[in-house]
Design a protein that fits this description.
The protein is α/β, with parallel strands linked by helices. Helices cover 40% and strands 17% of the residues. Helix 3 packs across helix 4. The model has no long low-confidence stretch (mean pLDDT 96). The protein binds ligand PBG and zinc ion. The site of zinc ion has 5 residues, from loops.
């Protein structure tokens, strides 16, 4: 009766990695239980996710070929685009969110195109817009740019509106830190930068006020929801952004945070179920409405058991 926050499967979003091929299921070594899957297996995963009570997935694509521009990102027959069409046909209730970024598609692994040895912010905007449009055309319910280029929310909003997709919401990875916790993801998405790092476009972990500024810029550009990432190491930031906007707020409990919880439990330090539900509950308590987590399905089934 007096509990202030609740965690339910409705709050959770499962990341899914789509790879080329058929019948493929390639485990991600640093993230036990997580795998790259070809479209057919993604559909099965989507069905199970929906059956577990989790309302949404966020798709990441691993393309057949990478180039300097990341041109597979806007291929209407790319892995992500085909996965969207198949999921929407076979599991229509499940919300399909797509990650919009270049790093999985570029041969250099950066989130934008390179000019003079660094990412060219403005030249990248058009490419992100083309990618988002291609996802919307395939039937995505929501697009989520994760690249951290300035101005991309407006660029994506404009191209979607011009093409009749004005009803498609935009979830912005507004506050994304240059974190050490993305390691396992880069194995999963095959998106490790081949030179340098992402500190020219991702945020300094030391900054909190800047997070509010970044979030509000995206709100002004037309974001329908904003995100803070990572989650567990940045709960103060989640709380601060919660106070700054009434828009729905997501937090991304990232790959390294998943690995930390999972391997801590495997090493016998704590019980995985207790630790995960407490961590996810903590993210809710800090103010997030939605949590992107690799534990989404496990957490949903633990929550269902708790209810019984
Ligand atoms: C990059 C991107 C990252 C993640 C999702 N998209 C981070 C990065 O490589 O810098 C991280 C997600 C995770 O660690 O779970 N666009
Ligand atoms: Zn990226």
């Amino acid at each position: 009766m007096v509990r202030e926050t609740v965690l339910t499967p409705d709050d959770l979003i499962l990341p899914v990695f789509v790879c080329p091929g058929r019948g493929m299921r390639k485990p991600v070594e640093s993230m036990p239980g997580v795998a790259q899957m070809s479209v057919d297996n993604v559909v099965a995963e989507a069905r199970d996710t929906w059956a577990a009570g989790v309302p949404a997935v966020i798709l990441f694509g691993i393309p057949t070929k990478k180039d300097a521009q990341g041109s597979e990102a806007w291929n209407d027959d790319g892995e992500v685009q085909r996965a969207i069409r198949e999921i929407k046909e076979r599991v229509p209730g499940l919300a399909v969110i797509t990650d919009v970024c270049m790093c999985e598609y570029t041969d250099h692994g950066h989130c934008g195109i390179i000019k003079d040895g660094d990412v060219d912010n403005d030249a990248t905007l058009d490419l992100l817009a083309k990618e988002a449009l291609s996802h919307a055309r395939a039937g995505a319910d929501m697009v989520a740019p994760s690249d951290m280029m300035d101005g991309r929310v407006m660029a994506i909003r404009e191209i979607l509106d011009e093409n009749g997709f004005d009803q498609i919401p935009l979830m912005s990875y507004a506050v994304k830190y240059a974190s050490g916790y993305y390691g396992p993801f880069r194995e999963a998405a095959e998106s490790t930068p081949q030179f340098g790092d992402r500190r020219s476009y991702q945020m300094d972990p030391a900054n909190q006020r800047e997070a509010v500024r970044e979030a509000m810029l995206d709100v002004e550009e037309g974001a329908d929801m904003v995100m803070v990432k990572p989650a567990l190491t940045y709960l103060d930031v989640v709380a601060r952004v919660r106070d700054a906007t009434d828009l729905p707020l997501a937090a991304y409990c990232v790959s390294g945070e998943f690995a930390m919880l999972h391997h801590g439990a495997v090493a016998g330090a704590f019980d995985e179920r207790a630790a995960v539900l407490e961590a996810l509950g903590g993210i809710r308590r800090a103010g997030a409405d939605m949590i992107i987590t690799y534990h989404a399905r496990a957490a949903a089934s633990w929550l269902a058991e708790t209810k019984e």
